[in-house]
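Methods — Computational structure assignment.
A single polypeptide chain was analysed. Its primary sequence is given first, followed by the predicted tertiary structure written as structure tokens.
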Amino acid sequence: MLARQVPRESRPPDHVHPTSHRPCLGRPTATQHAPFPEYTSGHSVQSAAAAEVMSSLFGEVGFTDHTHDARGMAPRSFGSPAEFAREAAISRLYGGIHYRSAIERGLDQGRCIGAAVNAVQLRIA
């Protein structure tokens, strides 16, 4: 039986995640599932769209992320916005949230959205 054939009311974790699968975000329970579709990955779409726009505005420049300094975590350095987007996207695979196909299609969608945003001619008042 495929996971998509299981009725939503009865979604035991082993139908969606085999017992051998150990996601980095912890083992889901019968009531703990992401409240959004698996396909496509929203993080992938949003990250790729943002990277496309940032690259258009600032170029393919590297940067260091200090978001979690206060938590005692080391800064993260990226060679470009696209590199950051790819890492944000693949984290969804490691977390057991999305399959690779949803991540790859999400990155494709995000790049298309970013290109569409870049094509808009804004009037500055």
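Note: Residues 36-125 form one domain.
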